[in-house]
Specification:
Length: 93
């Protein structure tokens, strides 16, 4: 499974509508309104690179109000290993 984060610049007047539209796209698992350089961040999980291209350029990129984007692909998820390490504290291992 490929996980990517799509960092989106959105016309301020379109943020709520764009967020709702992005949420409806297959492969988009989460959408966040954020502070800082970007307006929205969408988490995308798909089986193959070709699917990622379809979601990002074929679907998200065509939503009204999007002024720019940057996509970053995740290599590794550390959250699970950190959680496992926390549970092993004091276990004598």
């Amino acid at each position: 499974m490929i996980t990517a984060f799509v960092l989106l610049d959105i016309d301020v007047a379109c943020i709520p509508e764009a967020a709702r539209s992005i949420c409806e796209i297959d492969g988009v698992t989460e959408v966040y309104s954020v502070t800082g350089r970007y307006d929205l961040i969408a988490k995308v999980s798909v089986p193959q690179n070709e699917d990622l291209a379809d979601v990002v350029t074929g679907r998200i990129g065509k939503i009204e109000g999007i002024q720019g984007s940057e996509t970053v692909i995740a290599f590794r998820n550390y959250a699970d290993s950190l959680l496992d390490a926390g549970f092993s504290l004091g276990s004598g291992r």
